[in-house]
Each structure stands twice: as C-alpha cells, then as structure tokens.
Automatic annotation (TrEMBL):
The lineage of its organism: Archaea, Methanobacteriati, Methanobacteriota, Stenosarchaea group, Halobacteria. Pfam families: ECH_1. InterPro entries: ClpP/crotonase-like_dom_sf, Enoyl-CoA_hyd/isom_CS, Enoyl-CoA_hydra/iso, Enoyl-CoA_hydra_C. One of its GO terms (biological process) is fatty acid beta-oxidation. Belongs to the enoyl-CoA hydratase/isomerase family. This is Enoyl-CoA hydratase/isomerase. Keywords: Lyase. The keyword Lyase applies.
Length: 265
C-alpha cells in the first residue's frame, strides 16, 4: 500500500509489517498545520486497517519521518499563526493518537525537530536521530511554552533541569546531547542513518506483537499511575500473554533452538 494524503504519505511493507507515515510539507520544513495534523492521524488509521483482514497482527511497527533534506518537523506552522491555530496545535489530537496507537511508532529524526515537532517525536515510542539533527523548544521566543506537554515529558525523561533549560532558553541542542540526556534513544552517523533505522525497526517488527503492544500499554501506565496500580496492570497483561499462541511459539522456538515466528495471536 502506497497512499498520498494532502500533507502526508503512507506506505506499508507487507513483508516486514512496517508502515511509514511521511510528513510531507518539505517547503515549510514539515511544519504542523491543521491538514498535516489530520493526515498523521489518517495515515495511522490506514495502516491500522491492515490488521482488519489479517490472520493475527499485520502492522508491527510504524516509522514517522519528515520529507525533504532538512527537517523532521519545525513545529507549529507559524505562517498560519492565530490564537485558534495555536490552541489547536496544543490539543491532544495527533499526539494522543500516536501515544495510544497499538503498534510502536518510531520517530525518524533527520534534521530540525522543534517545538510541536519535538512534542510529536516525544509522543512516539522511540526517537532515532541522525548525528546532524537539532532539537529544541523555541516556543519561549513566541512568548509561549510547549503546549503539548513538552516540559512534562522531557522532565520525565531527562529531569526538570534539562526540561527548563530547553524550554526557558529556547536554545537548540544536538542529537548527541539529546541522547546523552535520555531524550532520544540512539544517534547514528548521517551516512549510516537509513540502514541503522531500518535494522532497528525490522528487529522491532519481528518481536511478538501482542507482547510489544502490552509493553507499550504498560509503559504508558507507568507514566500516568502509581506503582501499585501499575504492577496490578502488568500482572493482568502478563496473564493474558501467557494464553497467547505467540507465547507458545516463543517457548517452542527456545526449546527447539530456532528463531520464533510470531503472528500476533
Ligand atoms: N512554520 C511555517 N513555515 C516554516 C516553519 C514553521 N514552523 N519553519 C520553517 N518554515 C519555512 C520557512 O518560512 C521557509 O519558507 P520559505 O522558503 O517560503 O521562506 C522554509 O520553511 C525554510 O526555512 P528557512 O529558510 O528558515 O530555513 P533555515 O535553514 O534558514 O532555518 C530554522 C531553519 C532554524 C528551523 C528556521 O526555519 C526556524 O527558525 N523555523 C521556525 C521554528 C519555530 O519557531 N517553530 C515553531 C515552534 S513553536 C511550536 O511549535 C508551538 C507553538 C504554537 C504557536 C504557533 C502558532 C501556530
């Protein structure tokens, strides 16, 4: 499946189970306008539809990337600045959709990742960046704070000092500094970036999909709940996974000293 939406492209590789949503406004450094926000959701919905006729789980992982050479996403579209669009850009919309999406979503960051673009990446399960990428929260320069939870989420990942430094100074940091602070998962050399991301994503897509989904749910719960509630939740998920064919397949593959073939059942 290869689809063009107005402001995004969608592709699905049925061999690997990997979907790709490409934010496609390169002339505006993939800045988030209403259309792009809607198309990120529409693209993910199209990919999720791949599961409908599948025997098991067809969609195993999604890469979210930016078109063009320069940016993952340069934040909210400041060209269309209005109180209304500023409000809409901070609404939960595509951010929560990504957070609640059943398959893991990987932000492939190659270039600028700013403001609402960084918040979009923070909504993803993984952030992989090329070495020359640049991250930051320029909102303070507009007299604003990151409106979609940027300070909250960076505080959880890197602590309040780093979150305040980024959001109060508006200064941009390198991908390496962001990785050192725990904001992104991995930094790769620019000329090996595509191959490294492919390897990471293909590996992830080969894992037991129901377990991966449950782990995403569990991590989401850990951010929002107390430990007792989180432990009870994990225990329920664990018992459910014990009943899956994937668990039986994983155990059989271990016994037989072979690679498991998970189907998401
Ligand atoms: N919105 C709209 N267009 C943009 C944006 C943006 N956020 N960023 C870049 N562009 C456009 C430029 O206007 C330019 O267009 P054109 O070629 O027609 O002049 C094109 O993309 C290329 O950009 P530059 O020529 O500026 O490229 P440079 O390499 O010189 O600079 C930068 C790259 C440093 C990333 C620079 O473009 C920049 O500073 N961009 C703005 C970053 C920014 O402030 N983003 C907003 C963050 S705030 C946020 O996300 C949430 C706030 C919500 C309130 C905003 C209201 C909607």
């Amino acid at each position: 499946m290869d689809d063009d939406l107005d402001a995004a492209r969608v592709a699905f590789d049925s061999e690997t189970g990997v979907g790709t949503v490409t934010m496609n406004r390169p002339d505006a450094l993939n800045a988030l306008n209403d259309q792009l926000r809607a198309d990120i959701i529409a693209g993910l919905q199209r990919l999720e539809a791949e599961n409908e006729d599948a025997d098991g789980v067809a969609l195993r992982a999604v890469v979210l990337e930016g078109a063009g050479e320069k940016a993952f996403c340069a934040g909210a579209d400041v060209g269309g600045f209005s109180e209304e669009s500023a409000g809409a850009s901070s609404e939960r919309g595509h951010y929560e959709f990504i957070r609640n999406f059943p398959a893991p979503v990987i932000a492939k960051i190659d270039g600028y990742c700013l403001g609402g673009g960084l918040e979009t990446a923070l909504a993803c399960d993984f952030r992989l960046a090329s070495e020359s990428s640049t991250l930051g929260f320029p909102e303070v320069n507009l007299g604003l704070l990151p409106g979609a939870g940027g300070v909250q989420y960076v505080t959880k990942l890197a602590g309040p000092a780093v979150a305040k430094e980024l959001a109060m100074t508006g200064e941009y940091i390198s991908a390496q500094r962001a990785a050192d602070e725990g904001i992104i998962n991995h930094v790769y050399d620019d000329d090996e970036f595509d191959e490294e991301v492919d390897a990471f994503v293909t590996d992830l897509a080969g894992q037991a999909p129901l377990a991966v989904q449950a782990i995403k749910d569990s991590a989401h719960m850990a951010v929002q709940s107390g430990l007792e509630e989180g432990l009870r939740y994990d225990n329920r998920l664990f018992r459910e996974l014990l009943e899956t064919e994937d668990h039986a397949e994983g155990a059989a593959a271990f016994d037989e000293d072979r690679e498991p073939e998970f189907e998401g059942k």
